[in-house]
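ingest -> validate -> predict -> emit
validate: passed (alphabet ok, no gaps, 194 aa)
predict: started
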Amino acid sequence: MSRSFWLFGTRFTVHAHHEDTAGRYDLIEGHAPPGFQTPLHRHTRYAERFYILEGEFTVWAGERTAVLRPGDVFTVPVGTAHAVAVTGSGPARALAVASPSGFARLVMGAGTPDTGGAPPDGPPDMALFDRVCAEIGDETLGPPGAPPAGSRVGTHQPHKPHSASNILVKTLAHGNVGAVRCVDRTGRQPVVHP
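emit:
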């Protein structure tokens, strides 16, 4: 069952986490407001792959910089310093797959459950946030909006597996173990995104 949480003014819906996938991956949907920026950080135990659903994000990862729009896919390898920002004029929405599982533990452990009301005022409990980050191997390396040293705008073309109109993201549950697949609308030629 999906559950939603607020973390730094962004609503994250956890569709699959370590208990659902035997620790193989997390599937999280993020709804971020205009101007949202993560701090410069790195994940030492898992990679992240973003699939943009709406709006515009810019990702600075190592020496790469990508402006991402609906249908774009971008992967941040394990251990790569990166920052993410909503750079369009409106809110943005994306799916994030963390593999192996890790990111959902941060969202569920340090986030505030979404009860249907307004997002919480102010930041989360930073001591709790730092503790959960340490447990899952995440490191904060700089303030929000700080791109990694050496990043250059426009140096990376995002991967487009198919046009956004031909992609369905399905979560296939098999008992306690789930799988995420992107398939075209005809169900042919599955494109698996780890």
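Residues 63 and 149 are 7 Å apart (CA to CA).
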